[in-house]
Write a structure and sequence with these properties.
Elements (H helix, E strand, L loop, with lengths): L6 E7 L5 E14 L4 E8 L5 E6 L6 E4 L3 E7 L2 E7 L2 H15 L16 H9 L13 H11 L3 H13 L2 H15 L2 H15 L4 H7 L5 H7 L12 H8 L11 H20 L12 H20 L1 H12 L5 H18 L4 H13 L2 H9 L4 H17 L1 H12 L7 H12 L1 H11 L10 H20 L1 H11 L1 H6 L7 H16 L3 H9 L4 H10 L5 H15 L3 H15 L7 H17 L5 H6 L1 H7 L5 H8 L27 H12 L7 E3 L9 E3 L8 E3 L24 H13 L37 E3 L1
Antiparallel strand pairs: 1-2, 1-7, 2-3, 3-4, 5-6, 6-7, 8-9, 10-11
Helix pairs in contact: 3-6, 5-6, 10-11, 13-16, 15-16, 16-17, 17-18, 20-23, 23-26, 23-33, 26-28, 27-28
Pfam families: EVH1_PP4R3, PP4R3
InterPro entries: ARM-like, ARM-type_fold, EVH1_PP4R3, P4R3-like_central_dom, PH-like_dom_sf, PP4R3-like
GO molecular function: protein phosphatase activator activity
Length: about 775
């Protein structure tokens, strides 16, 4: 697997006629029993997973292009390509393919016999090679008919392409084109249009190389100006030579590079503007044209990267104060397109590309550009910066810290996170805090919702990777309560983002977070959203149930008790899933063990040592972190107050009663919310948010009436009707803000993360003053 000859990148052609990178791995050919034949296998170099398993079909047309590419159609409108790191590897696999198909490896395309009847196949195979009419003006109609009749048959297309290559026929046709234009022979020009259009559909790389050569390409475009279906000819050549001007922001000294840029632009123009729309032709009949453009761009990036003088001049002018604004904008736009082209490179080449840019000083240059007043220039610079962050975030962090302070006493990670949370986090969360001052979002337009969704994505990432810093920030700034206000948004994707943020916190099973959630009654907005979602069987419904199911399965005792003690009356009628009844059972089991300790005495004895070990408070380092005054924070004082252990029971309101008092004060007319569901024809449960005054329970906790957060009000349902369309939309929005699996981020690991090692049945270790105790009347 370490043989670089077999190292390849797998591409597939998407619906937009663009090549998608499916990963890098090593290719091999072997017999696969399941497919009953020799197959191409590509296994990822990262984890050995299977990127490609494709049987070498005797009737599939494989094409070898530019010495390092093999392209073929796996099925209708599904094209694949293998881009080899080395020519030798491409030749080896090509020989294997030709061996299976019984072809000579010297050919660049294997024959495809699909869609031909046995009779046609026999006739074509028994006949000699295709003989073309002599290339004369008087025989243009005959030539056009021959090309049109050959297109339906793959074998005839192959014979026609070979005949056109061997006889230099295309150049002869273009000579006749000049004659027809000089004579204003419109009929002959119409025939030439049909002939050239048909040659494009032969999908042959060797023919494209002739047609797109410097001496032929403008004449080819000229032939395509005379479409018989149009009353007047197009002026494509006039546009390309007079209107479209090639502007060199930095002079290019390499003539081959300049010619390649011209060629790529013109071929792209042919594809986008000259040829008929894709609906007229089969997509797979133009796949080679798409490949030609794609790999031309790869070659351009490589040639520019190797031109040291070009890059040196580029960055020198970018950072030169004497450069005028218009020129600088052109330079930035060029650099942006340059970076976009680099995404087509294989990993090792992309690494070299970005290292070259780094050595040239791209980050200091971007720092200058981002400080400019021109919005367009800043926008382009931001796009370039995003490429750099995606490629190597460590490089960007190192640069930021060097700019912040010239001090190497601490580690890069600790230094950066300290700087980020002190100077940057308040800027990131400012739109969130400004929009969540009330019980529902202050602004709920689509643009604001998109911005807040992106902020929540970043905060969710921080929760996962920045243990101490983000925990301190969330608890002291009461961030989770503000985030949950967004569950009242009319945009389902934003409400789901808020829920996902809380789910990530709960998933950590961190008792600091759990105490914060219980103290502020932060399940209240979630329960209200669940009830308001009502009978709609959508992503919101499933996501909320999954969160409670996680609490049940993981047996998070503190949260289980909190949910049942405070929200059971609202959830007890939900019986189309067993989640809430399962939570109640967990709670009752906990109470039984507490009331009858002898039943569990043996387990306690067996793990007595571990119990003593886990009964301690968090490590000194973490405890000091959360006890430290927030001098570095912008707001200073913590939002969540410390517990007051001296309060009398009379001063502590029952959370359920307080919830209902706030509900009655705000919405006196809503004494009972009764929602009924019909799911897949089932009798749905009733959800009731009305509590009997006779149900009394006193909870001894840290929270007093003055410490409870404000009611989240009556959020509108963020969900949407449970139609397939709405579910799909929610799902797509959810996918758009999901952190990618391979993301390399800022990760700080605590010295001893005890939560990951805890047994699911370990005893509750919180002090009694911090536990909620239920006293039944």
């Amino acid at each position: 697997m370490t043989d670089t000859r077999r190292r390849v990148k797998v591409y597939t052609l998407n619906e937009d006629r663009q090549w998608d990178d499916r990963g890098t791995g090593h290719v091999s050919s072997c017999y696969v029993e399941r497919l009953k034949g020799m197959s191409l296998l590509v296994r990822a170099e990262s984890d050995g997973s299977l990127l490609l398993e494709s049987k070498i079909n005797p009737n599939t047309a494989y094409q070898k292009q530019q010495d390092t590419l093999i392209v073929w159609s796996e099925a209708e409108n599904y094209d694949l390509a293998l881009s080899f790191q080395e020519k030798a590897g491409c030749d080896e696999i090509w020989e294997k393919i030709c061996q299976v198909q019984g072809k000579d490896p010297s050919v660049d395309i294997t024959q495809d016999l699909v869609d031909e009847s046995e009779e046609e196949r026999f006739d074509d195979m028994s006949s000699p090679g295709l003989e073309l009419p002599s290339c004369e003006l008087s025989r243009l109609e005959e030539i056009a008919e021959l090309v049109a009749s050959s297109l339906p048959s793959p074998l005839r297309r192959e014979k026609l392409a070979l005949a056109l290559e061997n006889e230099g026929y295309i150049k002869k046709l273009l000579e006749i084109f000049h004659v027809c234009e000089d004579l204003e022979n419109i009929e002959g020009l119409h025939h030439l249009y049909e002939i050239i259009k048909g040659i494009f559909l032969l999908n042959r790389t060797a023919l494209f190389e002739v047609m797109f050569s410097e001496e032929c390409i403008m004449d080819v475009i000229g032939c395509l100006e005379y479409d018989p279906s149009l009353s007047q000819s197009r002026k494509h050549r006039e546009f390309l030579t007079k209107t479209a001007k090639f502007k060199e922001v930095i002079p290019i000294s390499d003539p081959e590079l300049k010619q390649k840029i011209h060629q790529t632009y013109r071929v792209q123009y042919i594809q986008d503007m000259v040829l008929p729309t894709p609906s007229v032709f089969e997509e797979n009949m133009l796949s080679t044209l798409h490949s030609f453009i794609f790999f031309n761009k790869v070659e351009i990036v490589g040639m520019l990267q190797e031109d040291e003088k070009f890059l040196t001049d580029l960055f020198a002018q970018l950072t030169d104060e004497a450069t005028d604004e218009e020129k600088r904008q052109e330079l930035v736009n060029f650099l942006k397109e340059f970076c976009a082209f680099s995404q087509t490179l294989q990993p090792q080449n992309r690494d070299a590309f970005f290292k070259t840019l780094s050595n040239m000083g791209i980050l200091p240059a971007l720092e200058v550009i981002l400080g400019m007043d021109d919005a367009q220039v800043r926008s382009a610079a931001t796009d370039i910066f995003s490429y750099l962050v995606e490629y190597n975030p460590s490089m960007v962090r190192e640069f930021v810290m060097q700019e912040a302070q010239q001090n190497d006493d601490k580690t890069e990670k600790t230094e950066f996170l300290g700087f980020f949370y002190k100077h940057c986090m308040h800027v990131l969360t400012a739109p969130l805090l400004a929009n969540t001052t009330e019980d529902k979002p202050s602004k709920d337009d689509f643009q604001t919702a998109q911005l807040l969704a992106l902020i929540l994505e970043l905060l969710t990432f921080c929760v996962e990777h920045h243990t101490y810093h983000i925990k301190n920030y969330i608890i002291n700034k009461d961030i989770l309560r503000r985030v949950l206000v967004l569950m009242a948004s009319k945009h389902a994707f934003l409400a789901l983002c808020a829920l996902r943020f809380k789910r990530k916190i709960i998933g950590l099973k961190d008792e600091f977070y759990n105490r914060y959630i219980m103290k502020s009654f932060l399940f209240e907005p979630v329960v209200k959203a669940f009830l308001n979602n009502g009978s709609r069987y959508n992503l919101m419904n499933s996501a909320i149930i999954e969160m409670f199911e996680f609490i049940r399965v993981e047996d998070i005792k503190s949260l289980t008790a909190h949910v049942i003690e405070n929200y059971w009356k609202a959830l007890e009628d939900v019986d189309y899933v067993q989640t809430f009844k399962g939570l109640k059972l967990r709670f009752e089991q906990q109470r039984e063990r507490q009331d009858n300790p002898k039943l569990d005495s043996m387990r306690s004895i067996l793990r007595n040592h571990r119990y003593r070990r886990d009964a301690r408070t968090l490590e000194d380092e973490e405890e000091m972190w959360f006890n430290t005054d927030e001098d570095d924070m912008e707001d200073g004082e913590a939002v969540v107050p410390p517990s007051d252990k001296t309060k009398n029971d009379e001063d502590i309101m029952d959370p359920i009663s307080k919830f209902m008092e706030r509900k009655k004060l705000k919405e006196s007319e809503e004494k009972e919310v009764l929602l009924k569901t019909n799911l897949s024809g089932r009798q749905s449960p009733s959800f009731k948010l009305s509590f009997s005054s006779g149900t009394k329970s006193n909870l001894t906790s840290q929270s007093s009436a003055s410490n409870l957060p404000g009611s989240p009000g009556s959020p509108g349902s963020p969900g949407s009707p449970g139609s397939p369309g709405s579910v799909s939309k929610s799902t797509s929005q959810m996918a758009a803000i999901t952190t990618k699996g391979g993301l390399v981020g800022l990760v700080d690991y605590p010295d001893d993360d005890e939560e990951d090692d805890e047994d699911e049945d370990k005893e509750e270790t919180l002090p009694l003053s911090k536990k909620a105790k239920l006293e039944s009347s």
